[in-house]
Amino acid sequence: MGNPQSKQDEKVVTQNADKQTIPEQIIQNQSISKQSVRKNKKHRDDKVLDTQNAHEQPIPKQIIQKQSIPMQSASKRTKHRNMQNSNSRRSCDEIEPQDRNVRDDEPITKHHTISSETSDQEDIEISLHFARNYLTPTDISQEWPCTVLLKAPETNETKRSGVDIICVIDVSGSMNGDKIELVQKTLEFMITQMASDDRVSIVSFNNFSEKLLPLTVMNDSGKIKAQEAIERLYTSGGTNIISGLDYGINIAVNRNIENNSTAIILLSDGCDRCRETALERTNACIENYNSSNVSYTIHSFGYGSDHDAKVLSAIAEAKNGGFYYVEKFESIASAFANCLGELLSTIASEIQINLQTLPAPIEYLLTKVYSSNGDIQFSMPNVMAGDSKEAVFILEFPPSQFDIGEGIDIIPIRATVKYTLIKTGLRKTENRELVIRLRPDFEEVKFDESVLNNFYRVKTAEILKEAGIIADKGKLDKARKLVLNQANELKNCICNSTELVKMLEKDLKKASKRFENYSEYERGGRADINSMAMNHRSKRGENNVIYQNCAQKKMQVKSKNFFSS
């Protein structure tokens, strides 16, 4: 009886030539990279606080009436103030003066009750898959990818549950003019798509942050309040991303009542005023709220080529959100619509997977799990209606002379999947097992195209991320060679004709051009690489139609119609 093992803390090595693998010799023998869990992290002294006005002007009664939102065109807006702020170089450690732990969210008028019937209708289909239809033990080592598949059914869009969306908007001086006007119109579009079960909050930040709109129910009067808040997005001063992030998270964790789906949308066009410590302070800010046990995602938008892609992508990755690189200002509408379509069609959230190795008659090893936040225990992005998400892991089978007779089944892996249904708030736990057929090699081997496609997807994402790290060290030629080698591997792989693999190959070639010179890499290349890596890992992106569900595609059309009207 062979005992399952897990290789730990080894360096990536080149595949030995005598190993039997997928025909194109693609899978590297890599070990699971253990990630330490930092516990009880001391709160940082440089945590920034709120500058929300203590007394806001009341909205006249005649305004708060049921009426349509008065949408203004960008050309008719009041000219934005571009004031020079003498405080733009304040210390990173300066504390904002006002307490922001205020629970001022409006009550939700409609609630969905937990129903077993509703739960069954929107349940997630879970299954485990092996890369081929059977395996034959041989005298050489073999490595093959496997997947944990989570698939959601299509749902009725008109019966979706409510969402809480907290928009955190950069209003520093560099956002003046067309930039802020496009953001304002994009927020106006978002408001038109909100239902009476939804709530929206708006926070602006420059040197400090300010709550322009508490979580407000999006009925007719609430939409008017939101419109007025959008009109108060004035530009001035510097950029304190951590202040805005902290305020947004604070609103999410300090609510009297929560919608089952919550997201923070953070948009910035620049770098934090204390760039050298921004990443460290960002991580500390997010960790500071982890003990709240409140579920939310963060989606970040890097506007233009001057934003800090490292910080914004790290923020999104930490909370299983998407990072959108908005290279051309006018494309903000498309990127935002894609994100909004995801938020309004999410079926399951808080997805946690635990892989357990089981005894088997032959030796095997769980050598790698493709995850950014764990090894055998990890989380996954939310699943949308009509969407699927796949976790990929690698099994290695060392040389074996085990007599399998005419064939036997083995069960090497059990996956425990926990998730929350958005519609009901019900937390579910399901177990699934991976069954692999062992048999003599006397019939045609058939490969599971979906497993191989997803293996190439996550491997490409990992290569892009690694190439970005190499490029940041100034080794552009090495980074370029790495992505071109991966593109060549995809070109010659067994599923090179599939739509997904063709898209991956195209993006790798695009990435190689970003590494041609340092000027190109600095002028948007870094952001593009970070965005591609995250989007392929989590199956997101407004430019990746293959990753979009019906709700996102419809939202894109609505956005185009809104902006062209």
UniProtKB/TrEMBL annotation:
<feature type="compositionally biased region" description="Low complexity">
    <location>
        <begin position="25"/>
        <end position="35"/>
    </location>
</feature>
<feature type="domain" description="VWFA">
    <location>
        <begin position="164"/>
        <end position="347"/>
    </location>
</feature>
<dbReference type="InterPro" id="IPR051266">
    <property type="entry name" value="CLCR"/>
</dbReference>
<feature type="region of interest" description="Disordered">
    <location>
        <begin position="1"/>
        <end position="120"/>
    </location>
</feature>
<dbReference type="Pfam" id="PF00092">
    <property type="entry name" value="VWA"/>
</dbReference>
<dbReference type="InterPro" id="IPR036465">
    <property type="entry name" value="vWFA_dom_sf"/>
</dbReference>
<protein>
    <recommendedName>
        <fullName>VWFA domain-containing protein</fullName>
    </recommendedName>
</protein>
<feature type="compositionally biased region" description="Low complexity">
    <location>
        <begin position="57"/>
        <end position="73"/>
    </location>
</feature>
<dbReference type="InterPro" id="IPR002035">
    <property type="entry name" value="VWF_A"/>
</dbReference>
<feature type="compositionally biased region" description="Polar residues">
    <location>
        <begin position="13"/>
        <end position="23"/>
    </location>
</feature>
<feature type="compositionally biased region" description="Basic and acidic residues">
    <location>
        <begin position="90"/>
        <end position="109"/>
    </location>
</feature>
